[in-house]
Design goal:
Blueprint (H helix, E strand, L loop, with lengths): L1 H11 L2 E2 H12 L7 H13 L3 E5 L4 E5 L1 H12 L3 H5 L1 H10 L6 H16 L6 E2 L2 E2 L8 H35 L1
Antiparallel strand pairs: 1-3, 2-3, 4-5
């Protein structure tokens, strides 16, 4: 997700590495702060792949996305990895840049994948292969986990359905 964040922020505009690290850290929050030890190797990999360039402005290095980098970001947004759909933190990073996809149909397709993930039966706890619901959990703290997860999932599904409907209307209006 670090590389997606780099591509996404540089899609907006060129940046110094320090500002880029600050913006990525703000996006990922306390969960995954970005160190120079992670950022610079990722920048070097992306540069070696021809996805960005590095220029010296006299004081600091400025990174700029190449046309290939723009195309790669759009490819990754259009076809996110499964973990980018199923993991909440990864999905939020994907969501932060989804507006760069120019086609509302492509945006809706990504949101539909997230909605489909939510509609599959799942739990943190299983009994004989069956996902347990909060009402079935005798442990109050595990029941709390399941209750909070269900409330979050319900709010997410409501938002996803509304956004998908709006995007589909945009596609329909454009025809």
């Amino acid at each position: 997700m670090l590389e997606l964040s780099i591509l996404g922020f540089l899609f907006e505009r060129s940046m110094h590495a320090y500002e880029l690290r600050q913006r990525i850290s703000g996006l990922s929050g306390h969960i995954r702060p970005v160190s120079d030890g992670a950022l610079y190797p990722a920048l070097n990999r992306l540069r070696a792949a021809g996805l960005l360039t590095k220029d010296d402005d006299g004081a600091r290095q400025v990174y700029t996305l190449t046309d290939a980098g723009r195309a790669e970001l759009l490819r990754r947004l259009r076809n996110p990895a499964q973990v980018e759909i199923t993991d909440r933190n990864n999905f939020f990073i994907l969501l932060a840049f989804l507006r760069f996809l120019p086609d509302p149909a492509d945006q809706a397709a990504v949101l539909r994948r997230r909605l489909a993930f939510y509609e599959e039966p799942a739990s943190y706890f299983y009994e004989q292969g069956r996902p347990l619901k909060a009402a079935e959990m005798p442990d109050r703290f595990r029941r709390g986990m399941l209750t909070l997860a269900a409330a979050t999932a319900n709010a997410d599904k409501e938002w996803l359905r509304a956004e998908i409907a709006d995007l589909e209307q945009q596609v329909s209006d454009a025809r």
